[in-house]
Amino acid sequence: MSEMSVQHGGARSSFRVLNAADTADAAAWLRLWEQWPGREVHAHPGYASLFSNEHTDAFCACLSSRGGTVLFPFLLRAVPDELTAGKAPAGLHDITTPYGYGGAFCWGPESADLAAEFWAAFDSWGRTRQVVSEFIRFSLRPEIVLPYPGTVEVRQDNIVRGLDLSPDDLWMDFQHKVRKNVRKAERSGVEVIADPEGSRFEDFFRIYEATMDRRHADAAHCFSRSFFENIHENLAGQYIYFHASHEGKVISTELVLVSAETVYSFLGGTMSEYFELRPNDLLKYRVMLWSIDHGLRDYVLGGGYSPNDGTFRYKRAFAPSGSRPFRVGMRVLQPDAYLQLLSTTAAECAIPGYFPAYRRREHVIEL
């Protein structure tokens, strides 16, 4: 653990950077997370750890002060030697956030100086780790994250189904085709079960793998069996499976992540030979009813693969007025090192808009 005391306006604040791989740090991180009324699953140490590997470590920068509390989960990645090519210093790192929605989450009094205080302390720590650049995928609720000192861009919209209404009003707020599809699934005998323990995980994994194969998903979006086993072990109470079955066979399935106020559609799929029964429409409807029963405020369905594509329009049918901007943040913290790394990247491998640009060659190779 890295810890420092920050003096501001006569009051002292405690700034720490916790490593999820360290047992004591992970426990301290979890205790802070449990004190947060929002308890966003994407800030849980068990979630961030899902994305660590031999080149990537999961950390959380924490600030506790009279002005509020901050939790910033992030991934610290070593810049590969092949990207430095002898033109940039050794030991460089960059930062990204875990898959999903993140940022510097904050709660408490939230003084006007909290953001400046946190980012100054964080950048000081970053210099000790030779952090070149930073890329953040932000929460869809900007009010729960600190203002960002770098460049912020809207990439595309995501769909959020608000749940602060009655089941009858929810039903009437769907587009007509959703109601039609739900009725068809019910008439066809499709049933939906909630599975908080993952007792039918094998059915989920079979359908998930088949769906990824059908979509020709790249390796970055194809998660292994061990990935899900880690969810079961480290995120108890923060996930639930929903399965749609027909004549006793699971034909559509979804893994949902659960925060204190929000549920997130995470991963899943549907057997293509059962598309005509519209099982996924019924499944999503039942997720919403379950969420309302459990006092949750939002169901995040996510976005499409490109703006306004078929996947996005399908999700929007459940929440016609539920579009929210998905924002990302970018910073270059060591401009000279960034330019040196960029000079080693082949121009023909350029991916428009990809950040950090020096990793674009690595990205192409992974595809």
TrEMBL record:
Gene3D superfamilies linked: 3.40.630.30
Q: Which family does it belong to?
A: Belongs to the FemABX family.
Which GO terms of type biological process are on file?
cell wall organization; peptidoglycan biosynthetic process; regulation of cell shape
Q: Name one GO molecular function term.
A: aminoacyltransferase activity
Write one Pfam family the protein is assigned to. Answer: Acetyltransf_6
Domain (BioF2-like acetyltransferase): give its ranges: 175-316
The protein here is known as GNAT family N-acetyltransferase
Q: Which residues form a coiled coil?
A: none
